[in-house]
Every structure is written in C-alpha cells, then in structure tokens.
Write a structure and sequence with these properties.
With 171 residues, the protein is an all-alpha fold. Helix content is 73%, strand content 2%.
Length: 171
C-alpha cells in the first residue's frame, strides 16, 4: 500500500512538473500548482485524512482549470466563459475518476454526512479561489505590486495549510 502511495506521489510530481514547463504568463503560477500537487501527494503518502487530501485536490483542480483557461486565452481562441469551462472540465474528469478508483464513495468515510474527499474538494476549491482573490486585491491596493516575493505562491499555501490544520483538529 505504501509503495502505491509513493508511486502516486512521484506521478503527481512529474505531471506537475510537465504542466509547469510550457507556462509563461498564467492565471495562476506554475510553482503554485506544482506546490499544491506536491502537498496532495505528500498528504496521501503520509496517510493524512481524506478531507485534508481533498482540500489539496480541490485546489489543484481549480489551479489546473485556471491554467488551462490562461493557455486558451494565449491561443486567442474565442470561447465564452473560459475559466468556467476549463474548471468544469477538470472537475468532470476528477470526480468520476475518484469514484471509479474507489477513493471516494465509501459510506463509512464521511464527515457531516458528506464524503470526506468530496467535502475537502469543495472547501479546497473555495479556499484556493479566496487566496487568488486576496492576492489580486493586495496587488491592487499596493499599486499592482506584490508585498512579498512569491506572494502568489505563499497565499494559497498559507490558506490551504491553515484550513488543513483546522480539518486536522476536527477529524
């Protein structure tokens, strides 16, 4: 079982790296997406609760969706609601896959009556979206400049880490 988790962790890191290579200017930076993917792999490898792993999965899915929307914009394809379509694509591929692999859907693995991994995905998506909004507002207030180097990376990681700790206390 531990070997399988290690393999999944390595695959997540490799895929995150491959996704990051072609990025130039994206809606969400490549380093942030790779960091979220690494956080997910590490949490599953360490046997951390599914609700916490779900937080990171949701953040990774949203980050990947925003990346795809940015890539579509660079190609100058005229698609309506690019962010919504790209995000929906990732969730449409993600959720059924989790059920098919048996990662989600266990009736004994729930929190507040909701599957832990799905609950984590929903909350993780919201937390990541909030961190993107906070980053943009901080830049706006500071004359389109960051307060800290790698602010775009630090904020999502900080927000997700805080919420992960809260879920650790709850579960």
């Amino acid at each position: 079982m531990k070997t399988l988790l290690k393999i999944k962790f390595i695959i997540v890191l490799i895929l995150g790296y491959l996704v990051a290579i072609p990025a130039q200017v994206q809606a969400v930076c490549p380093v942030c997406t790779v960091a979220v993917g690494a956080g997910l792999g590490i949490s599953r490898w360490l046997g951390i609760d599914d609700s916490i792993a779900g937080l990171w999965i949701g953040a990774l899915a949203l980050s990947s969706g925003l990346w795809l929307a940015g890539w579509v914009s660079q190609k100058e394809w005229d698609l309506p609601k690019k962010e919504w379509l790209a995000g929906s694509l990732f969730y449409f591929l993600l959720i059924p896959t989790l059920y098919l692999l048996g990662i989600a859907g266990n009736p004994l693995n729930t929190l507040w009556g909701i599957d832990k991994i799905i609950l984590g995905i929903v909350i993780g998506t919201g937390v990541f979206a909030a961190s993107v909004v906070v980053d943009k507002r901080l830049r706006l207030v500071n004359g389109n400049q960051v307060y800290l180097y790698y602010q775009k990376v630090i904020l999502p990681m900080l927000f997700l880490s805080i919420v992960s700790f809260i879920f650790h206390l709850i579960t």
